[in-house]
Design goal:
This protein has 19 helices and 14 strands. It is of the alpha+beta class and about 475 residues long. A hairpin with a 4-residue loop joins strand 8 and strand 9. Mean pLDDT is about 90; it is low at about 1-30.
Length: about 475
């Protein structure tokens, strides 16, 4: 074997032209090194072999010249798809002005409130309407702080280097969330219109605020663990915890403002007529004006790694200490698509979670498996199937948006209308178009009202869920 490798190494020096002539085509290049290292090291001989295999390749030079002077996204954009694209949809739900989460990871909250507002717009004949994200944001932070401290107390007997404790300390009070987070907040704290608690600089730019809150909570974690190790009882620990929460509330009131206990509700319809002034508490406003049956919604996943047609929970996937973790059924992606279509055809918007970092052109708002042609430019194979992407952590459920429409051809979806929360400067004035091939590959989660689900799925939701660990790859909170 060693003699064979030596002969091949000599031939590689004597016949470089032959090596270049037989190189694999750039679109499916597979390097066959002629100098191998038995111990697996990256050797000078291996590097030289790779260099010679790429030498004098015109496509490589062209790609290097282009990539060194231009954004990659512009170079790989499929211009043919872009030129044939249109924004027509056979079925479309009317909504208000596009929302903007700005530099915060609140997509899950924006999407949840966005599916509630079309009913308010219809009720009062409004051109647009927006519920206060900042109001829910305040209470989400308070609840997450309390959940963190309770989790610290529950794990106080574990070593601080234990995997679960390290998980808690890594991100004590994240912005990200899930559908069940929004439901729990609304049911407990209600809702207010956008003008009753407006956005602040720190709600739109949350990084500095989160850094301070995280430091405060980690300090609190150290305090509580020390007290527990000193043998203090539950009462003393709760007093200490509530003092920490008092500081968290103070910080939030500085960063986000004080949430209203009561407010005046008034709006102007399309004919510029205003309704009579009504005074509500946030819970009264939710129950009397919004009136959504939040318990009627069911969360469905499609994760190829988990067995299908089973019920699951993920540990610590909640934002309150006194609610269950998110509970969801794992179904085939075809089922998710069918239920979304049924809801849209009845003018019901649908909250969903997906990996929005894959195959997207933010300028046009196109989500398609064909929109970015990386392999054509780079000359390497980047393909992975859906199972591999999940198993090897190349994908996460990173973002929540809302389905608002569908374009049918012979009764089958061609593309889907998506309401995003990134403002009007991306996509088609903030709206995105998802082609059907993208749905199959990158949508993982939808929330569907029970009316659109068959009996077997509703029965499945009544079974005992399998609880997955808190660090399961699909736990990634939507941002």
């Amino acid at each position: 074997m060693k003699r064979f490798l030596l002969i091949m190494a000599i031939l590689s020096v004597l016949l470089p032209a032959a090596n270049q002539a037989t190189a694999a085509p750039p679109e499916v290049r597979s390097i066959q090194p002629l100098v191998l290292s038995e111990d697996g090291a990256l050797t000078p001989g291996l590097i030289d072999s790779i260099r010679r295999s790429l030498r004098n390749e015109p496509a490589l030079r062209s790609a290097r010249n282009a990539a060194s002077a231009n954004p990659l996204g512009d170079l790989v954009l499929n211009r043919e798809l872009l030129s044939s694209h249109n924004n027509f949809f056979s079925n479309k739900i009317t909504t208000g002005k596009i929302t903007d989460q700005k530099k915060s990871a609140r997509c899950w909250m924006f999407a949840a409130l966005n599916i509630l507002r079309p009913a308010m717009m219809k009720k009062y004949h409004l051109k647009s309407f927006e519920l206060s994200q900042n109001y829910l944001y305040f209470w989400d932070k308070m609840e997450k702080a309390n959940l963190f401290l309770e989790s610290i107390l529950a794990t106080a007997d574990l070593d601080v280097r234990d995997r679960k404790v390290r998980f808690l300390l890594e991100d004590p009070i994240p912005d990200g969330g899930q559908w069940n987070y929004a439901v729990a907040l609304i049911k407990k704290y209600g809702l207010v219109p956008g003008d009753a608690m407006q956005e602040t600089y720190n709600s739109n730019n949350s990084a500095a605020m989160l850094k301070i809150l995280s430091t405060k909570l980690r300090q609190g974690a150290a305090r509580l663990r020390n007290l527990k190790q000193e043998g203090k009882g539950r009462t003393e620990l709760l007093v200490a915890k509530e003092n920490i929460l008092s500081d968290v509330y103070r910080l939030l009131s500085i960063f986000l403002g004080n949430p209203p206990e009561k407010f005046e509700f008034r709006c102007e319809d399309k004919e510029e007529k205003t309704n009579p002034v009504r005074v509500y508490t946030p819970l009264e406003f939710f129950k009397k004006e919004v009136g959504a049956e939040l318990d009627a919604y069911v969360c469905l996943y499609s994760n190829p790694l988990w067995p299908l047609n089973r019920l699951y929970q993920i540990d610590l996937n909640r934002n309150m200490a006194d609610i269950p973790n998110i509970t969801f059924a794992n179904l085939d992606i075809k089922d998710l698509k069918a239920y979304v279509l049924a809801a849209l055809l009845k003018n019901e918007p649908v909250w969903f979670g997906a990996d929005v970092g894959k195959q997207v052109d933010k300028k046009s708002g196109i989500l398609s498996e064909k929109i970015c042609q990386y392999e054509d430019l780079l000359g390497v194979d980047l393909s992975m199937n859906k199972v591999e992407r999940v198993l090897y952590q190349d994908t996460v459920v990173s973002h929540a948006m809302v389905f608002l429409g569908v374009d049918l051809e012979s009764g089958k979806p061609r593309k889907w209308l998506v309401e995003n929360s990134w403002g009007e400067d991306t996509g088609e004035k903030g709206f995105y178009t998802m082609y059907d091939d993208w749905f199959d590959q990158h949508v993982y989660e939808v929330v569907i009202r029970q009316d659109f689900l068959p009996k077997e799925v509703l029965d499945l939701m009544k079974t005992t869920p399998t609880v997955l660990p808190e660090d399961d790859p699909m736990r990634e909170m939507l941002r």
